[in-house]
Design brief:
Blueprint lengths: L8 H27 L9 H26 L14 H23 L4 H23 L6 H23 L7 H24 L4 H25 L12 H39 L1 H14 L5 H20 L4 H7 L7
């Protein structure tokens, strides 16, 4: 891109890493602040998902239309996706249509610290297991140990809320939604790897599918007052903010920054950098949202972060794993 011309590769890589970590950390904190019922939010989780898709669509849909025509691609979905229809539908279903509503719904039940552990932590777990089944990858002893640390950390966090379910607690619902969202993104990651998809084209494709499938139907339901959304009556400033941050920031800018970071640092070192996100977002939730950081959350956070870093460091010399890591944690 012309924006990066004149800058040294080191500067571009460092800036990309900083932008990626900041946006991914802010995503967890802002999503919780925006969906927490105790804060009386102006938008519900499905409204926020709509704002995300609309915001990203403003940038990516014209980009996709231009790519299809400039490169004379066999695009699909009204010429908005640079990928074939079948691929667009499969990756778009999991990476675009399901991921966002599930993740934002989770923030309506569980605190940001839980998301910090369960979403980034579950991604490499689900992706590794799916890669074994779908791509016939082999789990090395180092990866098994790293995944075991992640599972233990997830159980320390999610298990505690499950034990409180009988007492009427609802945090476990959020934990389950976080892990389901991570599972959906892992399916998208494995599919993207299986089809060797370009990062930009894949991001455009999932946004195009989510836009076509979600926006008209949800807006119609809102207009008919069938669903309790507040998108059409919420303050304009709140809607614009969510469109800019969740759509332009979390989808477009962080997607480009992550790709640039991969190009400079490589997939292994990049994954180690993004392993900072769980800890930073949990601490940010304590500072900005006033959330308590209990011992099980601290222990789970340490285990998950350690599992990600250990698995990546031990696999640094393995090219197949390095390639896999490129698409393991490629979003909030």
């Amino acid at each position: 891109m012309r924006f990066f011309k004149g800058l040294s590769p080191k500067t571009v890589g460092l800036a990309a890493a900083l932008v990626t970590v900041v946006i991914w950390t802010a995503f967890i904190v802002i999503a919780r602040a925006s969906a927490d019922p105790s804060r009386h939010p102006s938008l519900n989780p499905f409204d926020i998902a709509l704002a995300r898709i609309l915001g990203a669509g403003l940038i990516l849909l014209p980009w996709g239309w231009w790519l299809v025509r400039q490169q004379k691609l066999k695009g699909s979905l009204l010429g908005l996706s640079p990928l074939p229809l079948r691929v667009t539908a499969t990756v778009g279903l999991f990476g675009g249509l399901l991921y966002a509503p599930l993740a934002y719904s989770g923030f309506g039940f569980a605190p940001a610290a839980h998301a910090s552990v369960l979403m980034p932590g579950s991604l490499p777990l689900w992706t590794a297991l799916l890669a074994v089944v779908v791509l016939h990858d082999r789990l090395t002893p180092a990866r098994v140990l790293g995944l075991a640390l992640i599972v233990t950390g997830d159980l320390l966090v999610g298990g505690a809320s499950l034990l409180r379910a009988l007492d009427g607690g609802e945090v476990w619902k959020g934990d389950l939604l976080f892990m389901t969202a991570a599972f959906c993104w892992s399916i998208y990651s494995v599919l993207a790897r299986r089809h060797a998809l370009d990062a930009v084209k894949a991001t455009i494709a999932i946004t195009a599918f989510a836009f076509i499938a979600y926006v008209p139907s949800y807006l119609l339901l809102l207009a008919l007052d069938v669903v309790p959304g507040r998108f059409l009556s919420a303050p304009l400033g709140d809607v614009v903010f969510q469109m800019v941050f969740q759509g332009v920031g979390s989808v477009v800018i962080s997607g480009i920054a992550f790709t640039k970071m991969i190009q400079h640092y490589g997939p292994v070192r990049s994954t180690m950098i993004t392993a900072l996100v769980p800890g930073l977002s949990a601490l940010a939730a304590v500072v900005f949202l006033g959330e308590p950081l209990q011992w099980n959350l601290l222990a789970g956070l340490a285990l998950v972060t350690g599992g990600i870093v250990f698995g990546v460091r031990r696999a640094a010399a393995a090219a197949p794993l390095a390639a896999a890591q490129k698409s393991v944690i490629n979003a909030p």
